[in-house]
Model the fold of this input.
Amino acid sequence: MQQRLPDAPRVLLSLLTLVGAMLPQDALAASCKTQSQLTAPERDALSSAARIMVAEVQSGDSQALRANTIAAVAADFTGIAGSADSLKPFVQQAAITVDSLYALDATAESVGAARTDFYCGSPVVVMNFTDLPPGMYALAILHATGVPQPQQIALILSETADHRWMLGGFFSKPMMEANHDGLWYWVSARNYAQKNMNWDAWFYYRMAANILDPVEFLSSPNLEKLQHERDRVHPVGLPDSEPLTIDAHGSVFRLTSIDTTTALGALDLEVHYTPDNEEAIELHDPPTARKQVTELMAALLTMHPELNDAFHGFWVHADQGSASLFSLELSMNQIVQGTQSPVTNSNSITQ
Done:
């Protein structure tokens, strides 16, 4: 999904292509131990290594973090260094706790195995890797709390020949968006779904999934349940494969994407559209541009008045290629709705 929430920094282990999937139970799998199945020394070794790496992020010591990274990844460290630098202001004063650990034993895998699957614990958590070299790996998920914007950090660790845990992959994302956690968004999505407010429900389910799923290559029964609930309320007419065309008061708007964002603090719907030549000319005059974009907002709100209940407002961007001609953010109470309902094309039928 194109979730423009935090643009969560993710740096993947360069040796791996990671794909999350719930796989058939008869698939061959390497072995996995959950945190409760590890011995105390095993837990301590993994926790200590993960805490040291996160402490290096907190202190901004990229050189130390690189020294604790496997050679294949350290050779091109720009991505991890940039992600760590971006994360530092959010976690510098945070309390760090280890939320979960998984030890992944792929030592028996053959060289060049196309896919390695790990089934962990009960209920089963599934992790799927492609082109994973034989070896010992671990996933450590940590929480940085006690700060205004708590974060979750996931580290892929690789065990060296001398039994040291080194960094192989780095992921982070906020634990909350607009002051609410993933469970709150899930419960709210269910409430909207029960009221047939499917646009609200769809976007809230996606918010919940983005927050609750720490890494894309991990699947669990709860996450699968969340995805199934989300898919049941998918509205018809979203600008997915084709633009959403809205005819509002004589103007035709071609919407290319609608998504959620908290970039300005509150939870907004972020809308991108491509203006035609006449609309593009109008956008060069600020008062006319504001009127045009406000009409688009009003048309969307007339089509789907339930959006007023779930979102602070709209943040609309008029795009021409990769350039933004004009953008405007308004709260719902600032949007003056039109007096006539917009006429939509066949790509705009909604549930």
